[in-house]
Specification:
Blueprint lengths: L2 E2 L18 H8 L3 E5 L2 E4 L1 H20 L3 E2 L5 E3 L1 H5 L2 H4 L5 E4 L5 E4 L4 H11 L8 E10 L14 E11 L2 H22 L4 E4 L10 E7 L5 E5 L5 E3 L20 E4 L6 H11 L14 E9 L5 E9 L6 H8 L3 E4 L2 H6 L11 E2 L6 E2 L10 E4 L8 E8 L2 E7 L8 E2 L19 E15 L1 H5 L3 E3 L5 E3 L1 E8 H11 L1 E2 L2 E2 L10 E5 L4 H16 L4 E4 L6 H11 L3 E5 L7 E6 L5 E5 L3 H5 L1
Parallel strand pairs: 1-31, 4-8, 16-20, 20-23, 30-31, 30-32
Antiparallel strand pairs: 2-3, 5-7, 6-7, 8-9, 9-27, 10-11, 11-24, 12-13, 12-24, 14-22, 15-16, 15-17, 18-19, 21-22, 24-27, 25-26, 28-29, 32-33, 33-34
The structure holds one RNA strand.
Length: about 600
RNA sequence: CGGGAUGUGGCGCAAUUUGGUAGCGCACCUGUUUUGGGUACAGGGGGUUGCAGGUUCAAAUCCUGUCAUCCCGACCA
């Protein structure tokens, strides 16, 4: 039976909802696909459910084809498994927690690694059972600090999460590749534009991780890509270090007074005005070395300062810093931190002090402050810098790395900029925004160890299983597809996810119009097509056309005045093109 | 958590500055009309103005508190 608009539970809206900002959110609400139930929580109406189901089925088919088996866990979970992996605590405020009548702790699952691991442990105990890959399509719950953009970032959302279990690292790599391949097929079938970027493994541990991002200006993730095909999350970009320079022949380090230089720009101006370079060119911000004091807080709550020297023309990127110092929390040092470390002269911090005649290393575990000192990868041996002299209103010029100062290591946390070189030599990077729609991850043995998932190998010895986890944001894909496929009239779904294959509009008041539309709908269905039929009798054609465009089924058939010559119009929603065909040919013509 | 904005029938908004007992459009109901681009006309139902206090003869409007939502940032396998 076709979906009849005369009885479909649907009310389209002429105006944008006031609480919606992004296009996909506005259109999905206006066209009657979803309704807001609570912040970041949405009700699915019949049309929305149809689209969501289509996506789920594509995902399901490709998962099954890749050899994964579907299961279904509860969303309501007990506390214990999450206690074993410490995530009851680690997840913090993002976890929805609740208690039963006996005051026992429960949670609404934000993800299911623990449960899958325990399930395999529950049933399997031999290497002969492996590899195995399980998945589910299920609601997830995360109490986001700020849900936004409708379905794009909800507090309840549907995710396909899959988990692979292997005995060996090679097995894991194969399982990972199989899932990655399946993802490419899924997104291609759905008609989603995507790029695969290297991701930082972060707190999840493990060795390999890639994200599937759908490029979009409203995306929350920044990534970089090069003409040669390199793509990575900003967090994962490795800076290309230049070759070391010769130390011999460099000018000697000299301390100069530098009053009234609160910013890098004022410092550069002063340098050009008072200290000409030996090679004749002008000083630039890239010649300065900015020493940024950061405070790291470990998961146990221990606070430690670290100083990172970065070229003065770049800021520290907070996300890269978080990734580099994970699992520590990173924040700029506070006034209190400076008070506790009088050796740091704010605004004039540098690796070396010249006070008292002979130069003396200040920063670093070997320096007088004993504060760990790390350098940007660009600060290689032989490079010369203007940097703080550890005295008020004094900077030192031509301080050469490898000659005048050393550091404890490298910290690659400076911002990545458009034009920077790709790590693999594939050209200059450009920055772009994307929406994360999938993530594949070699977890390794972290969860298996925490939850004691072991199997006997062929020598009868217990081995810890190695795991991968693979996620696709199903409901987020609905929003991504809506965001990428619309015009000022409404949605334009790709065929694979449209709520129906064909949308038949009965435009007219004569009985023959409705009879013919019904007949056509039946013929489409006999061919295996799903049909939405606008059979509303007292609604004017303009309203029907408007709703057809808003709802966005790509193939529309108009049954109306053309009947006088035995014709109906085939209307391509995407191109806007209409073409008259004989009624009896309509089904065949639409393919 | 920091910054900003907003809470008035189902939806979008006005009335708040200058207190006088709530209005418009859409949607909904009835009738007539219209049927290839959101027809026209007439009639109608629906709101303790987020909540709680306070000021006042009188509060959507002024004061205090509180809650909620949205946006930006922080945060976020």
């Amino acid at each position: 039976m076709p979906i009849r608009l005369s009885s479909l539970f649907l009310r389209t809206l002429r105006e944008d909802p006031a609480d919606a900002e992004v296009t996909s959110h506005k259109l999905l609400v206006r066209a009657g696909y979803i309704r807001r139930a609570a912040p970041g929580v949405y009700t699915w109406l019949p049309l929305g459910l149809a689209v969501k189901s289509k996506i789920e089925n594509v995902v399901r088919e490709e998962m099954n084809a890749a050899g994964a088996q579907e299961v279904f866990f509860p969303a309501l979970l007990p506390r214990e498994p999450f206690e074993a992996t410490n995530r009851w605590t680690e997840y913090g405020d993002n976890l929805f927690r609740l208690q039963d009548r006996k005051k026992a702790d429960y949670l609404l699952a934000p993800t299911h690694e623990e449960m899958f691991t325990l399930l395999v442990k529950d049933l399997y105990s031999s290497y002969k059972d492996l590899p195995v890959c399980l998945y589910q399509i299920q609601n997830k719950y995360r109490d986001e600090a700020r849900p936004r953009a409708g379905l794009l970032r909800g507090r309840e959302f549907v995710m396909k999460d899959a988990y692979s279990f292997d005995l060996t690292d090679e097995g894991l790599a194969a399982s990972y590749q199989a899932q990655r391949d399946a993802y490419e097929r899924i997104f291609t079938r759905l008609g989603v534009d995507y790029v695969i970027v290297k991701a930082d493994a972060g707190a999840m541990g493990g060795s390999a991780s890639e994200e599937f991002l759908s490029p979009s200006p409203i995306g929350e993730d920044t990534f970089v890509r090069s003409p040669g095909g390199y793509a990575a999350n900003v967090e994962a970009v490795k800076t290309v270090a230049p070759a070391a320079l010769a130390i011999e022949g460099q000018p000697a380090a000299m301390v100069h007074p530098s009053p009234n230089t609160p910013t890098i720009a004022t410092l550069v101006d002063l340098a050009n005005a008072s200290v000409p370079r030996a090679d004749g060119r002008q000083w630039t911000a890239a010649d300065t070395l900015k020493n940024v004091v950061l405070a790291l807080t470990s998961p146990e709550g221990k606070r430690e300062l670290v100083i990172v020297g970065v070229p003065g023309d770049r800021e520290v990127d907070a996300k890269r810093a978080e990734a580099a110092f994970s699992p520590n929390e990173v924040e700029p040092a506070t006034e209190a931190d400076f008070e506790k470390n009088p050796g740091l002269v704010k605004g004039y911090i540098g690796p070396v002090s010249f006070a008292g005649g002979s130069p003396k290393q200040v920063l670093g575990l070997e320096g007088s402050t004993k504060i760990r000192y790390l350098l940007d990868p660009r600060v290689v041996n032989g490079t010369a810098w203007i940097t703080g002299a550890n005295e008020d209103q004094k900077h030192v010029f031509d301080l050469v790395k490898g000659r005048d100062f050393e550091a404890d290591g490298i910290a690659d946390i400076a911002e990545v900029r458009a034009g920077d070189a790709a790590p693999d030599g594939s050209g200059a990077l450009e920055l772009a925004r994307g929406i994360e729609i999938g993530h594949v991850f070699q977890l390794g043995r972290k969860y298996a160890e925490a939850l004691d998932l072991k199997v006997l190998d062929d020598n009868g010895k217990l081995q810890v299983v190695t795991m991968g986890s693979y996620g696709i944001g199903v409901t987020r894909l609905v929003a991504v597809l809506a965001e990428a496929n619309n015009d000022d009239k409404g949605l334009i779904w790709p065929e694979a996810v449209a709520p129906a294959d064909v949308y038949v509009v009965a435009a007219g008041k004569d009985e023959i119009v409705y009879e013919t539309a019904e007949k056509l709908a039946a013929e489409f269905e006999a061919k295996g097509k799903t049909v939405i039929l606008d059979d509303r009798q007292k609604v004017s054609p303009g309203v029907k056309f408007g709703d057809a465009e808003l709802i966005g089924v790509p193939k529309i058939v108009i049954v109306g005045r053309g009947l006088e010559t035995g014709e109906v119009d085939l209307w391509d929603r995407r191109s806007g093109e209409r073409r008259a065909v004989k009624v009896e040919n309509a089904v065949a013509e639409l393919g």
